[in-house]
Specification:
By secondary structure, the protein is mostly helical. Helix content is 79%, strand content 0%.
């Protein structure tokens, strides 16, 4: 919760080593709920650090919890959300939707509205709607999640912030940029006070704020925010983390809008290469970054390069994302 994912990873590793042993050997046993929870927290930390091992350990945690604790156990429900997130990261959106839809239904049945885990499950389903282009459906669910969170937990709670952040991203998809900016800026001071300047949630919020400032034409402000956010992501996570790559794309687009296409071209090329290495050439984030690369190439005067790139990625985008 504090954003110290490295310490979380190290602690989880120590716990797994101590507990994932037979009781006769001083451990808790491989199927004890505390051992399984340690595996889940380990996967969560790896995921936040951009480590692809999260896919393996998240699946291990979910499968073992289902077998030992059952599908309807609260620990299992949490593990399912982690696996769904991993499926989105690798581009298997249909499987993520199937897991999340069933999981939200179980949350409503077992934990009810306003429970923190239910709110997290709602957030996960809303992300699936967003990826599928159903921005209105995502927005409606995020508004409902905010209302439930305020009623059960209060306004100054992380899950309330997540719901509001989701609304801002949904509004971006709906083309309502000024509203998205207003919604995200409304909660940013409270997020900083609660979580700190360099928490992943705060950094992610600032990416959106910088992008929306650019969208509504406030270029000077957008450039300052994008530059600072790119620097903070690089310091916090390094150049190869998924969130840093996302911040790099935003910074490159802002430089282009500010009339600095040469620097933007170098940054966007690096971002696309990093996405290809991290996620593969046909992942939606890779393809979307390459669309931005073509835009920057065109602005820098490389119209033919941009045309060739568009011709290469358009068929892949139709196959992966659909013709619409």
């Amino acid at each position: 919760n504090t954003g110290d994912f490295e310490s979380c990873q190290a602690l989880a590793e120590e716990i797994i080593e101590a507990w994932d042993r037979p009781v006769s050997d001083g451990g808790h046993g491989p199927d004890d709920h505390l051992t399984l929870l340690a595996y889940r927290r380990y996967a969560d930390a790896l995921r936040s650090l951009g480590d692809r091992r999260a896919v393996h350990f998240g699946r291990v945690a979910m499968d073992r919890m289902r077998e030992s604790l059952g599908e309807r156990d609260e620990y299992t429900l949490g593990a399912v959300m982690g696996v769904a997130a991993d499926l989105r990261i690798v581009g298997d959106f249909a499987a993520a939707r199937e897991l999340d839809d069933r999981n939200l239904q179980l949350h409503y049945e077992l934990l009810g509205q306003g429970h923190p885990s239910t709110l997290r499950a709602m957030n996960s389903v809303a992300i699936n709607h967003r990826w599928a282009g159903n921005f209105q459906g995502a927005y409606d669910l995020d508004v409902e999640a905010e209302q439930q969170s305020i009623a059960a937990l209060g306004e100054l709670e992380p899950w309330t912030f997540f719901a509001v952040e989701g609304q801002a991203r949904d509004l971006v998809g709906l083309g309502r940029y000024a509203e998205a900016l207003q919604v995200q800026q409304r909660v940013l001071p409270a997020q900083i006070e609660l979580l700190g300047e360099h928490h992943l949630t705060v950094l992610r919020a600032r990416i959106l704020i910088g992008a929306m400032l650019r969208k509504i034409g406030r270029i000077t402000e957008a450039l300052a925010v994008a530059h600072e956010n790119y620097r903070n992501h690089t310091i916090r996570f390094g150049l190869r983390h998924g969130q840093t790559i996302y911040a790099t794309v935003t910074y490159a687009n802002t430089l282009r809008a500010a009339g600095e296409p040469t620097q933007a071209l170098s940054l966007i090329a690096d971002a696309c290469a990093s996405y290809r290495d991290l996620l593969g050439p046909r992942h939606p984030l890779t393809l979307c970054a390459e669309v931005n690369q073509a835009i920057v190439q065109r602005a820098a005067g490389y119209a033919r390069d941009a045309w060739l790139l568009d011709e290469r990625i358009l068929p892949a985008m139709r196959e992966v994302l659909g013709a619409d």
